[in-house]
Amino acid sequence: xxxxxxxxxxxxxxxxxxxxxxxxxLWNNYKPEDLATPTAFMRDPVLVWKWYDWxxxxxxxxxxxxxxxxxxxxxxxxxxxxxxQNVDGLHQKAGSTRVLELHGNIWRVRxxxxxxxxxxxxxxxxxxxxxxxxxxxILRPDVVWFGEEIPANILEESFRISENCEVMVxxxxxxxxxxxxxxxxxxxxAGARLVEINPEDTPISSISDMKIREKxxxxxxxxxxxxxxxx
Length: 231
Ligand SMILES: NC(=O)c1ccc[n+]([C@@H]2O[C@H](COP(=O)([O-])OP(=O)(O)OC[C@H]3O[C@@H](n4cnc5c(N)ncnc54)[C@H](O)[C@@H]3O)[C@@H](O)[C@H]2O)c1
Ligand SMILES: [Zn+2]
Fold this sequence. Notes:
The chain is an alpha/beta fold. The protein has 2 domains: 1-17 and 64-103 and 150-231, 3-Layer(aba) Sandwich (Rossmann fold), CATH 3.40.50.1220; 18-61 and 106-143, SIR2/SIRT2 'Small Domain'. Helix content is 32%, strand content 19%. It contains 8 helices and 9 strands. The chain has helices at 32-35, 38-43, 45-61, 66-74, 90-94, 152-163, 183-189, 216-230; strands at 2-7, 79-84, 99-101, 104-111, 117-119, 139-143, 167-171, 193-197, 210-212. It has a 6-stranded parallel β-sheet, sandwiched between helices. Strands 5-4-6 form a 3-stranded antiparallel β-sheet, with helices on one face. Helix 4 (66-74) packs parallel to helix 8 and helix 6 (152-163) runs parallel beside helix 7. The longest helix has 17 residues, at 45-61. The chain is globular and about 55 Å long. Bound molecules: nicotinamide-adenine-dinucleotide and zinc ion (ZN).
């Protein structure tokens, strides 16, 4: 059985990482939508990097929760692929080996001058904005900001995987950030069963075959039993 997990910020909430849509996502009264953009970075790279430095500090202390771990363990039983909108790397930390990161990774940086990309795990950053080790140019986080495009190869692969799965489980995503929010619709149209785990209703709820109105960890326990019943 081919199962795709499409995950969003909600799966990491129980690991202590704030989601974007919720009061705890605010930092110094700035909305993420006003910081995670190329325009914000061009205007004030120091401000944007201070926000990332704060988020990297939180992520560095976070551990995968039961939901990440259950998904990783399922790989031993069934064909599992994770498509995540998260940049925190917690799926890989939990042991998942097939993870597509739609929006990049918070530990990767990209030089705005020479375009080289590499990992930087400094917490807190020694210098803000951080500078490229090769050319001294200003670095930016290698993540996909609002108004930017997901790298074409990753997007194409996630479309292909969504068209070819038998079950898609959507965990902790608000379903309003596109194109990621298309993927459940693509899977459904191709005949997959859709399961949603989210304490709240989303635009994906209306097409879901099973709605689990729980937090990610409790919801995943229910989901694992359901998936086993399909085997
Ligand atoms: N951990 C991270 O890496 C992280 C954190 C915040 C934002 N982001 C980025 O922000 C964008 C925001 O979109 P999004 O849809 O992923 O997140 P979102 O913040 O828009 O929505 C979070 C969703 O999770 C649900 N939720 C909250 N707590 C939950 C829990 N304990 N269990 C299950 N669901 C829960 C909410 O009801 C909501 O629908 C993403 O593209 C992502 O790149 C990433
Ligand atoms: Zn450089």
